[in-house]
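Hi team,

Below is the intake form for 4-hydroxy-3-methylbut-2-en-1-yl diphosphate synthase (flavodoxin) from Polymorphum gilvum. Please confirm the fields before the structure is written into the shared record.

FORM ID: S-0412
PROTEIN: 4-hydroxy-3-methylbut-2-en-1-yl diphosphate synthase (flavodoxin)
ORGANISM: Polymorphum gilvum
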Amino acid sequence: MNTSCSFAQAWPRRRSVAVAVGGVTVGGDAPIVVQSMTNTDTADADATVAQVAALARAGSELVRITVDRPEAATAVPRIRERLDRIGVTVPLIGDFHYIGHKLLADHPACAEALAKYRINPGNVGFKAKRDTQFSQIIEIALKYDKPVRIGVNWGSLDQELLTRLMDENAASETPVSAAAVMREAIIQSGLLSAERAETLGMGRDKIILSAKVSQVQDLIAVYADLAGRCDYALHLGLTEAGMGSKGIVASAASMGILLQQGIGDTIRVSLTPEPGGDRTREVQVAQELLQVMGFRAFVPVVAACPGCGRTTSTVFQELAQDIQEHIRSSMPAWRERYPGVESLSVAVMGCIVNGPGESKHADIGISLPGTGETPAAPVFIDGEKVTTLRGPSIADDFKTMVLDYIEQRYGQGRPAGRRVPADVA
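The structure came back. Fields below:
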């Protein structure tokens, strides 16, 4: 299992078939992959290139773009070329609905430029055309050696399949709830589509499944059942998760349980951006979910106490925020300059109660003075007290020490992970 967690998991990671998506491996022994999606008009190449680049810099390892009409399909190869030119190599996934078969056939450069195609069985075609148009997309994927994600969504579920299962349930001697039938329809839609792709010649190492719903308990139930019925790589996501804290909590609650059960090979946190909000927020939340659960490390962790009546000063809050923002904004460059820096832990504590102990547990930590305490701030590096900072420049002095520590521990000529105390008085 590919994880950095130091605790024993309740369940081992589910073994799935590995799928290569561009230069990224999904499933098998590969780390859980973070994915995101643009909300630009793909036909607007300038806006799409800018957003894909921003998502990639934030840490998205796969980026999905909408391909909904000829103008968008025409723009895809230009977008890929421009991204490559500026050094953004993140694989692009084409999101197809209704006329994907026609767009891929009419725009071979688009079919070639994409690293994966996403197909929704509920709207790939209707009635007699469904199987034909699905087959056409699979045949094009085979021609260009591209994997596919068969992505079922309960908002666009195959109504013929759902109606049939509802009728069978009504006639059963032991009928189940409508919700259970809905979940079964979602699972069958994905599995039957994958089975059809295999009969057309697509290998299991070219298929990823997803079964997205918007309610936490339904998502957990669907994926737990789906995971037990196949070994395809699985993409996790709570569809229409919502805005702000609601979307974050719902996504973390549902996917956190599934990930702890070993289910999930790639994830997306589908947040609704607030007006004028940053699309990269969904990438940050996905990374934080994987990191706090111990599955991967993306950025140094900044631990900070919540504050109480003993910490009336706002210095520790401002310092923690300043360091955290500086770390995240610096990570694109730091990944290249300081290999292994994502494993760094920093503690910024607000008083003497838990401050010294928490700081000792971090790679580098500071315990700022609380209400009524001596205006002194002990600093700990690798578990040892190295100095005490005093005066109005405590915050700036500590930030300098953090940067010095990073340079010494992770800089050129230093093996990743070696602990080297900062040179402090």
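SUMMARY LINE: The chain has two domains: 19-293, 301-410.

Thanks, M.
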